[in-house]
Amino acid sequence: MNLSTIVEVRRPASFADLRDWHAGCSWLAGGTWLFSEPQVAVDTLIDLDALGWTPLTVTEAGLEIAATCRVAELHAFAGPPEWRAVPLFRHCIDAFLMSFKIWNAATIGGNLCMSLPAGAMISLTAALEGVCTLWPRAGAPRTVPVVDFVTGNHANILQPGELLRSIHLPASALAKRTAMRQVSLTKLGRSAALIVATVGADGSDFLLTVSAATPRPVQLRFPACPSAEALRGALDARLPRDAYFDDVHGSAPYKQHVTRYLAEQIRSELA
Ligand SMILES: Cc1cc2nc3c(=O)[nH]c(=O)nc-3n(C[C@H](O)[C@H](O)[C@H](O)COP(=O)(O)OP(=O)(O)OC[C@H]3O[C@@H](n4cnc5c(N)ncnc54)[C@H](O)[C@@H]3O)c2cc1C
């Protein structure tokens, strides 16, 4: 849709050009959400595309995903063979409810910054122990784990004018075995639960990430693959029924039920 309140679109070529931020400014990434509803408080769009950030950078330490990397670019990524977790990229992306246009325009950073419970790129990067690099308006860059970046439904730790620069996925997490399950109430509906577990090749360091069923991602870590009883006990202790996200995509009791059910499926798959 046309955003009738916009009076200026800036296309800075570097972060240094991003001066005079004011309350009506908004970062523009893929624009798939920004242009989907009125933004009455926004008068200036700052297009991140011209910054020209390399979408994906492989290093010995892991994978650097620029905030401006498109969902379609991440889907096409083929990593080194020792990164056993790479197929999880496509499984999570396929869980993302989107049209052809969103597929090709939406960015990984935009999905994180939207901070919706069904943000499949949040599920993916949290499960793979991602760390965000944030550029504040003033001061040095700061880092924060993805799991702590999102604080609730459509809420995160970004300060006014702060920019998400990139997400780092460590090589140690990319080398882990993974299992994932996703469920929606309707065939093409938003995720009601997206659950991922990862475990080291030697069976150590089992990490369960619950998302979509809860307002923000929740993680449970075990030294090794737990028993069914231990996992269920830990889930219920951490997530009582009222900790689940109740909305049109599923009631809290339903989401609790499918979370328990799917968590046990992926636990037994990895065990
Ligand atoms: C029909 C439809 C279905 C959708 N389905 C889903 C869904 O299933 N799950 C889901 O999570 N979302 C969904 N969305 C919302 C949205 O399209 C996605 O979250 C998408 O990934 C947003 O990415 P974008 O690059 O288009 O962000 P934009 O629309 O460009 O930006 C989104 C917000 O993030 C801010 N932002 C973007 N990049 C940065 C950055 N680097 N640093 C700081 N702030 C930034 C923008 O200022 C804006 O406030 C849907 C939208 C539509 C219209």
Keywords:
about 270 residues; alpha+beta; Uridine Diphospho-n-acetylenolpyruvylglucosamine Reductase, domain 3; four-stranded antiparallel β-sheet; binds flavin-adenine dinucleotide
Kindly describe this structure:
The protein has 271 residues and is an alpha+beta fold. It has nine helices and 14 strands. The protein folds into three domains: 8-46; 53-172, Uridine Diphospho-n-acetylenolpyruvylglucosamine Reductase, domain 3 (2-Layer Sandwich), CATH 3.30.465; 176-270, Enolase-like, domain 1 (2-Layer Sandwich), CATH 3.30.390. It has helices at residues 71-75, 87-94, 100-105, 108-114, 120-127, 146-149, 171-174, 228-238, 252-270, and strands spanning 8-10, 25-28, 44-47, 56-59, 62-66, 131-135, 142-145, 150-152, 155-156, 163-170, 177-184, 191-199, 204-211, 218-224. Helix 2 (87-94) packs antiparallel against helix 5 (120-127) and helix 8 (228-238) runs antiparallel to helix 9. The protein starts with 7 loop residues before the first strand and ends with a helix. The model has no long low-confidence stretch (mean pLDDT 95). It binds flavin-adenine dinucleotide (FAD). Residues 26-34, 36, 48, 67, 96-98, 102, 105-107, 109-111, 113-114, 116, 118-119, 158, 163-164, 190 line the site of flavin-adenine dinucleotide. Flavin-adenine dinucleotide binds at residues 26-34, 36, 48, 67, 96-98, 102, 105-107, 109-111, 113-114, 116, 118-119, 158, 163-164, 190.
